[in-house]
Amino acid sequence: MSRSTSAHPAAAPDRFDHRMAAFGSDEGFVAAALPFLAEGLAARDEPPPVAIAAPALLAVLRDALGTDARDIGFVDHADWYTGTAANAVARGAGYLAANAGPGGRVHLLMEPDWAGRAGRSVRESAEWIRYESLANLLFAPSATTVLCAYDIRTAGPAVVDAARRAHPGTGVYEQPSVLVRELDAVPLAPPPRTVTRLPGAESVRAWSAGRGLAAREAELFTHAVAAAAVAHGPVVDFVAWGEAPACVCELRLCRAVADPLAGFVPPPGGEPEPGHGLWFTRQVCAYVDVRDGTAGDGARIRVQYG
What we know:
Blueprint: E1 4-7, E2 17-23, H1 26-42, E3 50-53, H2 55-65, E4 73-76, H3 77-80, H4 85-99, E5 107-110, H5 122-138, E6 145-151, H6 152-155, H7 157-164, H8 176-184, E7 196-198, H9 203-210, H10 215-232, E8 235-241, E9 248-253, H11 278-284, E10 287-291, E11 300-304
Parallel strand pairs: 2-6, 3-4, 3-5, 5-6
Antiparallel strand pairs: 1-2, 7-8, 8-9, 9-11, 10-11
């Protein structure tokens, strides 16, 4: 039996409208998508709406739209969600800057690729829920309307339940400051018994090359660690472990990282550069975990290249 639920909160016309629909069948997806896309087609000062989803769902949606399909953009979600959650922020911000109407106006139907990176581990799933929550802050000034589509068949009920907490209007919504703090309270796995203490960020290059990273990758990893250190130092200790591609460097800091959006706010224009701090780190590394200390201790930033 099809199961479809959706949340359509009333949003101010010039503010981010972040909705969610959960479904358990192709018919449930179409039932949620059609009125949303119709709303986008009828909206003033907007380009055509875009559907970003699994190819099979896009095919079903095209059939249901009939001739209206010619007025809709279609994107395979494996082409949109090509990396980390931080990469998805960059992709979304870049798309809005290049294609949206005034104030970011556009309707986007978005199904994260839960059969890909997003769903491959509990850690990855938590990172994507963090992204969903932070989107409410990151895109708050824009007039973008988003319907996040969650296929229970691929995402699973636990992920869907967590996602509801990241979307206004679901009845269980949590403010990003609450939900992100909860996600960041989960302890990191302890370092291995044998680690290497490095004298500074520059020494990451030789160490990671010795652990199997290619010269270009070792260079990027070094810049990523240095960017985090410059933005959030001083650093008390650099501790490294692992083998390529999963080389890890943990920065132990003197102070907490107070901003939950650290490294998620896109800098103005262009490709990420090392001077863009933790944004650069998140764009080039597979994992960036921030944990604030307790009892006055500083934070830890754990950076894993691959």
